[in-house]
Design goal:
Blueprint (H helix, E strand, L loop, with lengths): L4 H8 L3 H9 L6 H14 L5 H8 L4 E6 L5 H16 L3 E6 L4 H13 L5 E3 L6 H9 L4 E4 L9 E5 L1 H14 L4 E6 L5 H15 L5 E6 L5 H12 L7 E4 L2 H13 L10 E3 L5 H5 L6 E3 L2 H17 L8 E4 L2 E3 L7
Parallel strand pairs: 1-2, 1-3, 3-4, 4-5, 5-11, 6-7, 6-8, 8-9
Antiparallel strand pairs: 10-12
Helix pairs in contact: 1-2, 1-3, 5-13, 8-9, 10-11
The protein binds alpha-D-ribofuranose.
Alpha-D-ribofuranose binds next to loops.
Amino acid sequence: MAVSVRDVAVAASVSVGTVSNVLNRRDKVAADTVERVLAAIDELGFVRNDAARQLRAGRSRSIGLVVPDAGNPFFADVARGAEARAEDDRLSVLLGNSDEDSSREDRYLDLFREQRVNGVLISPATDDVDKLQRVQNAGIPVVLVDHELPGSTFCSVSVDDIEGGYLAVRHLIDIGRRRIAFIGGPSSIAQVANRLTGARRAVEEAPDATLELIEMPALTVLNGREAGEVIVGQPDRPDAIFAANDLLAVGLLQAFSMFGTLRVPEDIALIGYDDIDFAAATVVPLSSIRQPAQLIGHTAVDLLLRSIDDPDGDYERNVRFRPELVIRQSTSG
Ligand code: RIB
């Protein structure tokens, strides 16, 4: 097997990005590090992959990122992490917002192909493998962000949302709540469907617990507020809510303080998902299921560049992080 950039990095105890800098921008690297990397190159007999360099050479110094909601702080953090990794290789990130709309997504994919980006990161609005395969067949690597497409050849970086949904509802049951409502978005959003699957698994473990599903048109603060208005008016309202993301949870909190006398957590416990920065800053600090958003973005770019520089390398192509339960006032006491 050909010696890879990663092999050189390991031998010289530096990152793949540093090896890339020694090969492409030696002036940016400390002299002793350059010497160590060159020694490793000589010792291993590394020969740079000209096809990869040519591939990059024929590209703009950018990476395309398509997200379903640029207004969601979760994706802003994903983009920030992607930028941090891209800048290591002096690449820029071009951000496209699909608003969960497949035709908008197509326009951005076409634009990124015209711009000859090095690769595309995408949190897809649909599970349409064919259109992503067309991008990859055009020589532009695709990495799925916050999503997996089992059976496809795409690299992916995601979080186990089934485990995340289970953790959220298990926590509500552990604090004694039994009439639980799941405030979700369109079930076409895979992340939401997986969180609901996990929630159902937790309820199945507690025979005296029930799970009511309230599906909203979108995962936004406004939709959370509208769902909260409905719940405030329910005679047999739930005693706990799992919101499919923190934006919905923020809107629910607003509704409970604006339209009724429901106290959180006394009358109704509330947990969200993502653990965006606002979650800790809400009037009742929000419990949530944390996703490492910046790490997701950083890892996705790293995976993309490896797939260019070391297409046959020995590395994990489907990275899946574990969600983390973060307990705050909205489910305590
Ligand atoms: O895009 C909808 C949701 O899925 C976001 O809030 C984030 O949780 C993502 O994983």
